[in-house]
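Researcher: Going back to the complex we discussed earlier. I've cleaned up the inputs and rechecked each line, so this should be the final set. Can you rerun the prediction on the complete assembly and write out the structure?
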Amino acid sequence: EADIYQTPRYLVIGTGKKITLECSQTMGHDKMYWYQQDPGMELHLIHYSYGVNSTEKGDLSSESTVSRIRTEHFPLTLESARPSHTSQYLCASRTDRGANYGYTFGSGTRLTVV
Amino acid sequence: GQQLNQSPQSMFIQEGEDVSMNCTSSSIFNTWLWYKQEPGEGPVLLIALYKAGELTSNGRLTAQFGITRKDSFLNISASIPSDVGIYFCAGQLGANSKLTFGKGITLSVRP
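Model: Rerun complete. Updated structure for the full complex:
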C-alpha cells in the first residue's frame, strides 16, 4: 500500500486558475521531491526539500512554488495555470537513514489546463 | 549535466522470453536504481545497487552495477504479461545528490 499520497489524481482546470497539488507521506522522510513528467518521457525535477522550511528549485524551470511547513506535507502551487502546465506531476520522498536510498513515489496528479 | 542513456525506446517480446535492458552514462554514479512505471501510476522501485560490480536479484529480475560505475543492466527472465510498463534507470552520485533519470524503455509482452 502507498505511504505517499497525492491528491487529486486527475484535475482539469481553466487557464488562470490557482491550484495546489497535495503530497503527504507517512514515513517520516526528510527529503521530498516534485517531478514533472510528460507522457512517455523521463522525469524532470522541478522542486525539492531536505527538511522543514527548506525548499530548492530543481533542474527544470517551473512557474510553480512549494512549501514545507511540516515534515509530512509538501504541496505544490501554481498561481495562474496555463495550458503549458498540462503534465503529470509526481511527488517522491526518501530518507538517508539505513542503507536504502531509494525514492518512494506517489501515484501522481495528471493536470490538464484548458 | 549528467545524462543517462536508455535504448531502444521500446521493446516487444514474447511471453516467456528473457529481456535485458542497458543504461549507460558519460559520468560515474555511486548508486543505480531501476524503476518500473505502469500507466497512470508513479514509478515503483525494483532494485537498488550501491556498489560497483554488485549483482542483485528480485524474483525474476536481476540487475548489475557496472564495474566502471558508468553503466547498469536489468534482466527480466521468463517474462509475463504483467511485466508490461516503462522501465527507468536512475543514477545518483552521492547521498545528497539529485537523482538523474533515463528516458525509460517501454516494454510490451505478447501473450
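Model: Worth noting: Chain B touches chain A through 25 residues (CB under 8 Å).
Researcher: Good, that matches what I expected from the previous run.
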